[in-house]
Amino acid sequence: MSHARNISRRNFLKRTSTVMTGLMGFPYIVPSSALGKAGQSGRIAPSNRIVMGFIGVGGQGTQGLAGGIWAPEGGFIGRAEVQAVAVCDADARNKNRARDIVNQKYGNNDCATYGDFRELLARQDIDAVLIATGERWHPLISIAAAKAGKDIYCEKPLSVTIEEAKAARDAVTRYGVVFQMGTQQRSSWSFRFACELVRNGYIGQVKTVTVGVGGPVVYKLCDLPAEPVPDYLDYDMWLGPIPWRPYNVGFVRGWMAYRDCSGGEMTNWGAHHFDTAQWGLGTDDSGPVEIIPPDGKDWKVITYRYASGATMIRDPEKLKAETGQDNGVMFEGTEGKVAVWRYTLRTWPENLIKQKIGPDQIHLQESENHHTDFVNSIRTRAKPISDIATGCRSITVCHLGNIAYELGRPLKWNPEKEAFVNDPLADRMVSRSARSPWCL
């Protein structure tokens, strides 16, 4: 696929016409009001716009759509080069609210709503999608979007299992779509500069990386009593691939506390901070070789060992003792230390923060804004800063920790083969069965 490709509507339809064959091929006509009028002041010609659909428009999805703490620039609909035309959610309240936001933004009533993401993906006018469901859905929807020829911005975490992450990576790679993982720390100067200091040897040889990720490990299954399903929720679609559990409002609102739906804080904040640790260690295409849990299932400390000799520990208490923050990353080397959290950088010695990275040294990929980087990658076909390959490797680190916690013993991992070493029991925990029809 050409990296200089133009993303015009005509080229896009030509690119996706074969992919869309057999995919709920409803004929869609996009009204001119949904595309705007070329030539008006401040307008971008319709043929140059990126048309987006939004799948999962609850809290995080609404922020990605319209702006919020993680998208202060106004979300994707705040961008003249993007046109939102459709929203999808199993909760009618969410999709109707998102529809109203879009229509109010454009001053029309053209935003379509869906309860089934497959119908949205079948639209040939849509170039790209934002996926902001719970992670139980992320791999399946990403795979379906890749097959449909859509470029993808997917919120983290990437998956609930290692196998799911790898399947999503395989599909994105096979179909050649742009994929941006929502690990926006990679678009922060402070996190990038911290990693550049480490990668260029300014703290000497890296000995220890401390990752601050709070919260207990998730093991429990939902055993809440059954309640009537509200009429605004398609509960079967909300559950998706996970085992059937009776509806309970506490389950739906607090799904991150249950193992069916999530890896807990190890994958929630871990998707950010272990990703930064991997970036700084230069192991975006690799991973640890050994994972050692504490005695029993104590969540406080877990140790990862790398082939380079570096050790990474999950220890929020140590991080807080050193920095006053229990959520972030600290690199310790033979000649200094670097700690970074949102969005503060601290160095030992202090003047290291003023260091200039030389022109012949390692410069990591730059991005000033995660959404902008995604949009630019759609136009240029260049690799975004949080692509599917690094997202898969980073979430694997999180899952390896959870598996070690659950088994309560050390594990050997081969990062080249992406497999455990002579450990059939651990191998079985790399994947899980899915509820029909939602198989990989």
Could you characterize what this model shows?
The protein has about 450 residues and is an alpha/beta fold. It contains 16 helices and 15 strands. The strands form two sheets. The protein has a nine-stranded mixed β-sheet with strand order 13-12-11-7-10-9-8-14-15, sandwiched between helices. Strands 3-2-1-4-5-6 form a six-stranded parallel β-sheet, sandwiched between helices. The longest helix is centred in the last third of the chain and has 20 residues. The radius of gyration is 22 Å and the shape is globular.
Question: What's this entry about, in short?
Answer:
By secondary structure, the chain is an alpha/beta fold.
Low-confidence stretches: 1-41
Query: What is the alpha-carbon Rg in Å?
Result: 22 Å
- The secondary structure category is alpha/beta
- Mind summarizing the main beta sheet? 9 strands, mixed
Helical percent range?
25-40%
Approximately how much beta-strand content do the residues carry? 15-25%
